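Input.
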Amino acid sequence: MTFDFDLFVIGGGSAGVRCARIAAGHGARVGIAEARFWGGTCVNVGCVPKKLMVMASEYGAMPDDARGFGWTIAPGTHDWRTLIANKDAEIARLNGIYRRLLDGAGATVFEARAQFLDPHTLLVGDRRVSAARIVIATGGRPLPPDFPGAEHCIVSDDAFFLPERPQRVVVFGGGYIGVEFAGIFAGLGSEVHLVTRRALPLRGFDEDLRTALAEAMTAQGLHLHGGTEIRAVAAEGAARRVTLADGTQIAADLVFVAIGRVPNTEGLGLDAAGVATDGFGAVTVDAAQRTSVPHVYAIGDVTNRINLTPVATAEGHALADALFGPGPRVWALDRVATAVFSSPPVATVGLTEQEAALRGPAEIYLTRFTPMRHALTGRKRRSLMKLVVDQATQVVLGAHMVGEDAPEIVQGLSIALNCGATKADFDRTVGIHPTAAEEFVTLRTRTRMAEGPTPQPEPDAQPLGAAEIGAAEAGVGA
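Output.
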């Protein structure tokens, strides 16, 4: 049978664009469809604009910080509209780059929605196309709330386009998105209440790290409501009245719900192709990214496995190489570093103390200290650094940090962990002084041993629904 394309990719996000571009570079006839925006969630309503907003929020404390160093800087005011306009211009520039990369590689680009008609045929806009192989890379979408008054709330996609900055914000959700936007709004001057089903934010992260972040957020002036949830939201004119499960009522101008994300598979016609999904709507795949239909593949967040942009990009590249190139590229996905751009930021790679203890006795090395900068600023902000080491082999199983530059520092440590570095390797490494990063190679005294089963997980305020469980297990839930 003759097909229109050797490969057709549904979705123009990080995974889809990389897969299409690399496959076309290998000489394949490639088509790719995107109905919304090139670059997907990360570029448009995720990592990139969010980090620009995090950067904006950090400037507010600088006049106060500068006083300890002899500077007198008058506090300024923040212009939200300028931030959003400049953010939009940068995102538009990146959109263009993604599109030009595809054109330059020779892929055929469709700015339209695609859906399956049968295992080899797609309806792309109003055109039928066929492909020998098809890749599903449609990403995820925010999980909407379902409590009374949900219509008075926003989800993460909406936050990037608010016309004004709200003065009083309630954020519901303790995952990446919730804690990051709580810090953004607080740093820009809003009163922020963070509501989490768990007692501490960042479910699934190391417990010491979670505790340290909660303390830092409280010191910054955020109001944390742990172990509860929103029961209802009522409109009072332009304002909102939020009622929590524990009876607390909060007056707000904006209610931001970030309780997780779900795979974006609705309307794809997967049934027509015979592509199977799990109970949460995620496309099920094997180790080679194959779905239940051998010539149909799925990559990125639509599989609801490791929902991180670099992982999606790696999967797209590896699949293109495996199908049309010299062979599959091998990526280390068992020790993927990740960062939360909270205030202060969090970064981690490898096993938590609790996970390591399930495998056998582990040595814990931990330090908390006030960074040199804040010895003069007087700001109540402390850093935490932690190593988890297998007692038997002395291999470093996990590295965790809360504090300034944590993502930059842990990115380097992730190389060491992926190379199987031991505690002795860390100990014989000479640090750069004076830096925070040198603390990771000067941790000489064991803090404690971890062994045996982990403690029982914290109870949820209320049992999660099926979709919420899937999102929470991906590390993004409340």
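The first strand starts at residue 5 and ends at 10.
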